[in-house]
Amino acid sequence: MASFKAFMPFLFVVCLMVGSVSAQLSSTFYDTTCPNVSSIVRGVVEQALRSDDRAGAKLIRLHFHDCFVDGCDGSVLLEDQDGIVSELGANGNDGITGFNIVNDIKAAIENVCPGVVSCADILALASRHSVNLAGGPGWETQLGRRDGRTANLNGAMELPSPFDDLSVLRRKFRDVQLDDTTDLVALSGAHTFGRSRCRFFDRRLNTSNPDPTLNSTYADQLRENCQPGRDTFVNLDPTTPDTFDRNYFTNLQSNRGLLESDQVLFSTSGAPTISIVNSFASSQSQFFTAFAQSMINMGNLGPLTGSTGEIRTNCRRLN
Ligand code: HEM
Ligand SMILES: *[C@@H]1O[C@H](CO)[C@@H](O)[C@H](O)[C@H]1NC(C)=O
Ligand SMILES: *[C@@H]1O[C@H](CO)[C@@H](O)[C@H](O)[C@H]1NC(C)=O
Ligand SMILES: *[C@@H]1O[C@H](CO)[C@@H](O)[C@H](O)[C@H]1NC(C)=O
């Protein structure tokens, strides 16, 4: 008993630390204030998918770029305005899109429960439904984030780049307190749907300097799609472009990762990510379980909770 008492202060400190990492989000956060929020979001995402195959891909990418810069606080959504230099000026955010869908979701929610649901939580819920509607897993979305009143352009300059090698990608995941192997590989699996413009991979297509980690048959196809001056959109997953499945990983095994930052997960000699790619390629359920957990991990990054920040009325602007 005496030794347990002596241990108590340590236990208390450990609980505080765990508390600050998981930041008090909860899957029941809106149960009394906006009980139908999840199905409202799902409904608007479904609607958006009817006219835009990429709608879900756009939304989850926004959530990723939000969470990696000062945590999931809706900062990526802010336009230039008084006191705010938008993060959209960063290279990593060049061409990022989906803001209109976020506005539609926000409008649908404000109709039913005004002033209650944050834009940061909208991105988390929209990501969860986007993945699920494309055939991927579901999970209990953790909620209760507040919207920030700042943006961080310099932080956005540090977003992972398609030209980063594996050691830089791993360092950027560690920098935000994510796991640099399992979270990195699982979350990169989001490239099982959506598109990339040619500028992000066309240096791999130089015939006088062939990329040894790029499948030559696939490279020929890409050259057709990416003729000079045509910054076309190309499927990130050439096998099943709009379906959330394990084919991103089987593609890597046949050197058909589109971006260098995709292929390095499998083609960097001796890397600890290779065996993870192989297990996700051979078991979709292992991928889905890991992906759901990694999305919760990413969604937990540094959220504002309690009475910090605000609930934005317009996701693109401070109140
Ligand atoms: C690991 C480092 C990552 C890098 C270097 C990277 C880079 C990129 C690039 C260059 C594009 C194409 C953008 C364009 O042409 O406009 C893209 C698209 C996309 N990314 Fe990533 N990404 C990474 C991780 C992630 C993560 C963690 C997620 C989500 C969990 C994600 C989701 C997506 C989706 C869904 C698209 C397609 C978007 C669309 O069709 O509009 N990416 N990514
Ligand atoms: C919840 O929202 C969905 C989608 O908008 C709608 O179909 C359903 O009737 C709503 N349920 C309640 C109880 O409001
Ligand atoms: C293609 O690769 C060659 C050889 O490395 C290089 O000299 C040339 O500049 C490259 N072309 C382009 C368009 O990058
Ligand atoms: C290249 O991709 C094709 C499928 O398009 C595959 O059959 C072949 O094995 C791949 N080659 C290599 C070297 O991975």
TrEMBL record:
It is an enzyme of class 1 (oxidoreductase). GO terms for cellular component: extracellular region. The gene is LOC111483916. Substrate binds at residue 160. Binds 2 calcium ions per subunit. Binds 1 heme b (iron(II)-protoporphyrin IX) group per subunit. Residues 24-319 form the Plant heme peroxidase family profile domain. This is Peroxidase. Ca(2+) 1 binds at residues 66, 69, 71, 73, 75, 87. Disulfide bonds join 34-113, 67-72, 119-315, 198-226. Removal of H(2)O(2), oxidation of toxic reductants, biosynthesis and degradation of lignin, suberization, auxin catabolism, response to environmental stresses such as wounding, pathogen attack and oxidative stress. These functions might be dependent on each isozyme/isoform in each plant tissue.
